[in-house]
Amino acid sequence: MQVDLLKDIVASVASKNAVGIVDLLHGKKNVNEFLIAKKLNLTINQTRNILYKLSDEGLVSFIRKKDSKKGGWYTYFWTLNSGKSLVKFREKLLKNIEDLKSQAATRKTKQFFFCPNCTIEYTEENALLHDYTCPECGEILQVKESSADIAGLEKEVSRLEVILHNINEEIGTISKKEEQARGRRFKAEAKKKEEERLARKKERARLKIKEEKASKKVAKKPSKKKRS
Known about the structure:
Blueprint (H helix, E strand, L loop, with lengths): L2 H11 L6 H6 L5 E2 H8 L3 H13 L3 E8 L5 E8 L3 H26 L2 E3 L6 E3 H6 L12 E2 L3 H74 L8
Antiparallel strand pairs: 1-3, 2-3, 4-5, 4-6
Helix pairs in contact: 3-4, 5-7
C-alpha cells in the first residue's frame, strides 16, 4: 500500500499529527504501543486514543500481552491493515462524500440565519419559529451568506474524492495480487493432487507386481511326496 495514501487516510480519521504512526507501523508487525508513544512524543493515552480511532475504521489491528514487569497490565502491539480495511474505509468515505454533497446542495437552495452575538446558526424554519430573534440572547437574526460554507464543503468533497480514487486503485492492485496468489495456490494444490494421484498409482502398481511375484513363487514351490 502507498505510504502517502495511508497518511491521507490516517489524517482523515484521526488528525495530521497522527500520520507519523504510518512511518512507525508500515511494513512491520506488532509494534509496542509504548515505542509508538515515545517516537511520536505523545503520552500513552494520547497514542491509544489515536490508535483506537484507526482501529474502529479497521485500519490497524492489535494483539495484547500481559506484562508481569508492569504489575500484570496488558501491553498492546499494533499492526497496519490493508485490503478489507480499505474496503470498509471506502464505504465510510463514500457516505461522507454524499453527506457533504447533500449539505452543499441544501445551502444552495435554502436560506440560513445566524445570531451575531451567539454565532448560532438556524434554518429558515427555526428562525421563523423564533420570530427571527435569537432564543439565547434576543438579538435579531441575520441572513447568513452561505457561499463560503458551500466552497468549503465542495473543497472537502474534492479532497475526499482524490483519496477515494487512490483507494480504489489500491484496492484494485490488492485484488489483482490476491487473485494471482489464489491462482498460484490453485496450481500448487492441483500439482500436489496430481503428484499424490501418481504416487498412489505407482504404489498400486508396485503392490500388484509384488503380489504377482508372490503368487508365482507359491505356484513353483514343489509339493512333498508322501512316504509309502
